[in-house]
Amino acid sequence: MLQDDAREEVLRNARLMMDIAPAMRAYTVEQVKPHLDKQLRDVFLPQTVPAFAATETLSHIQKKYRDYGYKEATLNPTPPRDRATDWEADIVQQFRHNPASSELVSERNGGSGRTLYIAKPIQINNPACLQCHSAPAAAPASMLKIYGEANGFGWKLKEIVGAQVVTVPMDIPIMKADRAFMTFMASLAAIFLAVFIAINLMLSWLILRPVRRMSATADQVSHSDFEVPEFSDAGRDETALLGTSFNRMRRSLEKAMHMLERGDP
Question: What is the DSSP pairing of strand 69-74 with strand 113-123?
Answer without folding.
Answer: unpaired
